[in-house]
Amino acid sequence: MRARRLALATCADLPDWEIDDRPLHEALSERGVVVERPAWSDDTVDWSDFDACLIRTTWDYQERRDEFLAWARTAASLTRLFNPLAIVEWNTHKGYLRDLADRGVPTAPTVWLDRGGRVDLEPLLAERGWARGFLKPAIGATARETMRFHATGGELAAAQAHLDRLLPTEDMLLQPYLARVETEGERSAIFIDGAFTHAVRKIPVPGDYRVQDDFGARDEPTELTAVELELARSLMASIDDGLLYGRVDMLRDDAGGSCITELELVEPSLFFRHAPHTADLLADALIARLA
């Protein structure tokens, strides 16, 4: 019987220190799967050579989303793409958070700022009583072009200049700054084949809000509260029962309530280093889909 060939789609300049997916590589190899890691942007790759393509570390698409989606459509037409194309199209623009909010999912309060417009931040913040604000692009990852600021003085002026620079070419989100991230971090719930597997707490360096290890943040296994776990489970169940993997990111607001900050269904880190058995679960789920 021919060995399965799997593409783990990556980016052309993945840092050498990125090793979190190694348990997955090993789990697949142990099951007789031939694993290759082509860059999604490499136009010499014939995606029909693979039995499936699992999107993993494609972490350079944020400023090339149209190109990335064109690739995903091509790959999906030539092999099985995980997660599915419709999810990739929906989840790579943070407009999905508006969809979730419309369904009643507790998300961070958000003002949606459409590209090409002109927005004055001061009255928006004043109307909502937000003493601190947070700006982030609708297409982004690894804290790209995010900014926290106070609603007065020099920080407000800097935030206005930041927005004026970005809004002509990209959609933006304005949210209240959830300061508990600095002390409590962000919690992530990881799911494989619809089932919760483990949770991680990501903690920024003192005084920072960025929870990515690119900025010196650390992460550790954690236990979710019953409320957090139910929130994450109900959200994943409401999206699609065919999802192969996913991650739900949550913060606590000023009152201590939990809200969804991101739903990562395309290329999230799944923190295998904190639960190596999860790599086995993902490998088995993928092989079962291909059987």
What percentage of the residues does DSSP assign to strands (E)? Answer: 15-25%
Q: What is the helix content?
A: 25-40%
Q: How many domains would you count in the coordinates?
A: 3
Helix/strand class: alpha+beta
Number of E strands: 13
Summed over residues and divided by their number, the pLDDT gives a mean of 95
- At CATH level 2, the architecture of the largest domain is 3-Layer(aba) Sandwich
Strand order of the largest sheet: 11-10-9-12-13
Count of runs of 4 or more consecutive helical residues: 9
Q: Report the CATH C-level class of the largest domain.
A: Alpha Beta
Largest sheet: 5 strands, antiparallel
What sequence of helices (H) and strands (E) makes up the elements? EHEEHEHHEHEEHEHEEEHEEH
Gyration radius from CA atoms, angstroms:
20 Å
Categorize the overall geometry: globular
Low-confidence stretches: none
CATH topology (level 3) name of the largest domain: Rossmann fold
**First and last CA, distance:** 12 Å
Please explain how this structure is put together.
A hairpin with a 2-residue loop joins strand 9 and strand 10. The strands form 3 sheets. A 5-stranded antiparallel β-sheet has the order 11-10-9-12-13. It has a 4-stranded parallel β-sheet with strand order 2-1-3-4. The chain folds into 3 domains: 98 residues, Rossmann fold (3-Layer(aba) Sandwich), CATH 3.40.50; 96 residues, D-amino Acid Aminotransferase, Chain A, domain 1 (2-Layer Sandwich); 66 residues, 2-Layer Sandwich (Dna Ligase, domain 1). Helix content is 32%, strand content 24%. It starts with a strand and ends with a helix. The chain is of the alpha+beta class and 291 residues long.
